[in-house]
Amino acid sequence: xxxxxxxCAAILCGAxxxxxxxxxxxxGYAIGSATMKLGERVNSSGTxxxxxxxxxxxNFQVRGTYxxxxxxxxxxxxxxxxGSDQDVSxxxxxxxxxxxxxxxxxxxxxxxxxxxFTNNIYGRFGALLKLGGKTEGVIYQKSVxxxxxxxxxxxxxxxxxxxxxxxxxHGQFPLGFVGALGYKYDLDSNFSVFAEVEFYGISLKRKDxxxxxxxxxxxxxxxxxxxSGLYTxxxxxxxxxxxxxxxxxxxxxxxxxxxxxxxxxxxSSFGLNxxxxxxFKKTNKE
Length: 286
Prior knowledge:
CATH topology: Porin
Strand order of the largest sheet: 1-4-5-7-8-10-11-17
Strand content: over 45%
């Protein structure tokens, strides 16, 4: 036992004595991979599926890396994803218009193993997880009133309702994969710049959602507001729930509209990052 402890201590001391710390900051853009159906686009001539991934968008990362020797190291990183708009529902019909998009606003972290193939080319792979954030849905809906509806509201035919609301979707704790291949160029003994291609493989299972903003106005055919704030966040229309919980199982006799079956949504992506690295002085004496 003492021999084993001595060997482990020697290996650890050796790794530390020849190790090197570095920190990196980068930004980049990713496109969706392993895309899934997110919604539909509907017009008078037909219906078209909308595919995508919420992992598409601009990302910002800060990473700390420790190299045990000239080739092998470990990397810890945190990042923020400012996702691009993804079509969830687009409807263009004579009496109805809908423009509903969703986008990621997420914070994540990664833990990876890094290996230098050469002094300039490196690779890293490891685990990816989400720390916080949301998938934000932004919805616009225009609906022309039928004659009975217009009469009940005391507005002329051709009047319509215009609704704008925001719904925030939250997910359960996910675990995914991250891998990257990069090229770095040394500017001097401390600074270097790099470019890398990066893959995220991760999906998110929905946990709950909540409407954070809601407003419905009644407008005349010329667009003049006849009734402002017919419905608001404090006065939601019948059938619209402020909060929804997503579950894996529902009874056939369920009547609770605040519960819906859960689903997984994609966050996978391929991206290109460009950044700068600062290398601290090596701990060994040369």
